[in-house]
Design a protein that fits this description.
Layout (H helix, E strand, L loop, with lengths): L19 E7 L2 E6 L4 E6 L5 E6 L31 E4 L4 E4 L5 E2 L6 E2 L4 E6 L2 E6 L7 E2 L8 E7 L4 E6 L4 E6 L6 E4 L6 E7 L4 E6 L4 E6 L6 E4 L6 E7 L4 E6 L5 E6 L6 E4 L5 E7 L4 E6 L4 E6 L6 E4 L5 E7 L2 E6 L4 E6 L7 E4 L5 E7 L20 E5 L2 E5 L5 E2 L6 E2 L5 E5 L2 E5 L9 E2 L10 E5 L4 E5 L5 E4 L7 E4 L13 E7 L4 E6 L4 E6 L4 E7 L16
Antiparallel strand pairs: 1-2, 2-3, 3-4, 5-6, 7-8, 9-10, 9-32, 10-11, 12-13, 13-14, 14-15, 16-17, 17-18, 18-19, 20-21, 21-22, 22-23, 24-25, 25-26, 26-27, 28-29, 29-30, 30-31, 33-34, 35-36, 37-38, 38-39, 40-41, 41-42, 42-43, 44-45, 45-46, 46-47
Length: 553
Amino acid sequence: VINVDGTERRTLLEDKLPHIFGFTLLGDFIYWTDWQRRSIERVHKVKASRDVIIDQLPDLMGLKAVNVAKVIGTNPCAEGNGGCSHLCFFTPRATKCGCPIGLELLSDMRTCIVPEAFLVFTSRAAIHRISLETNNNDVAIPLAGVKEASALDFDVSNNHIYWTDVSLKTISRAFMNGSSVEHVIEFGLDYPEGMAVDWMGKNLYWADTGTNRIEVARLDGQFRQVLVWRDLDNPRSLALDPTKGYIYWTEWGGKPRIVRAFMDGTNGMTLVDKVGRANDLTIDYADQRLYWTDLDTNMIESSNMLGQDRVVIADDLPHPFGLTQYSDYIYWTDWNLHSIERADKTSGRNRTLIQGHLDFVMDILVFHSSRQDGLNDCMHNNGQCGQLCLAIPGGHRCGCASHYTLDPSSRNCSPPSAFLLFSQKCAISRMIPDDQRSPDLILPLHGLRNVKAIDYDPLDKFIYWVDGRQNIKRAKDDGTQPFVLTSPGQSQNLSPDRQPHDLSIDIYSRMLFWTCEATNTINVHRLDGDAMGVVLRGERDRPRAIAVNAERG
């Protein structure tokens, strides 16, 4: 026991306390739970007399004493919430007001408001926000599972923030208060460093420098399509102008450049080719200007939307990296100065330090509804498209997930009828032979480990595979309806020592045949999951590859 100022420390008990866990105070007694003694006990806080309240209780954990009839003392927060609109915190020196995440405190230090605009930036394993209106700076958004966030964007209509994680190789989203974190894209990514939200078509675009592709999907990750994969050289930053129907990106390859194309990936053209490693491409929608940082020249530049009328905004910067624009200002991060600064967007003058002491800020943006304004065809009933509505100048085109094709109506999509499936260690991919319109695509199948064999049921459209844990599994090509057909020890009709090597489907009898080297057997399962048993058994044959000629029996 000790006084609150640290004086008069003394010991009440010191024996027979093998494993105290729960601890609480009620009246003149201290109560606790003990894991090893399996008891709830108490001791008088002055006399040190000890009693066992109850024993022989397994798994004792927390303990809390409650006295609803007696409330001792008060503080200023108890009356009128201390004058605070939302949260009241009483400290020894003063009462302080606070706001929930997403609100900001006014200069009266009592009232919380919804901010008109605020900065959001990535900093390694965290995403932060900074007020543009008050002194409430650098608040971390409580996001779970962020490891190395890179690109950022948002969907203001749903209050969502999106980010890429180059370490986890994922694209994720959450509400701006940090809740409901979910992976939107988690397969087939290598180094996703550029990303942009199409707030009109409700699509998500990203550039992957590892796969050397620009792709698109719905905001929830559905209907993923590879847009651009030829004539790309290390694509980096992305920006969208869905009102006009254009996508812009930068490339960091042997010949760095800034490129424009329709948002369906067609009609690509180079806008700027005499440039270094252009980063964080940003659009001023009101004045129709492009802005970017150049990591080789350490400048911030601007041009019109055709890459012409090129202007240097700032050229005395140690290491500019992230960049965004809002109202009359540009905001940028500097890796050498560890800062976020602001300046006039046309002249670069009136430089102001927004925040210092920041390390490796990868991306920065301003969250405000004016950054996502305008109209296009895709805003109304998805442009009558079954999957993707992709804006183009003067209209839109319907698009399909990779390997799917538009039907004659040019609105709905049909799945591929002929394709190749191939497995790698932890992935199953699909490709269309002799189709130059789309490359191979990793399928979103969870939990793949050392995939050894695959087959496909064209009737029910399931993929079947054997993994390194001796399981035979199946799922749809979009990852839905996963099912374990057989696993070690699951069936009494089959040996627990079996090691499936290859499999083949009889689509007519709805049977799956598979070989096992360990037991020298060929086995059969019904596709509904029932194990039928052994078809053939040998002594030294060690069967491996298998094929079923279902038409001839």
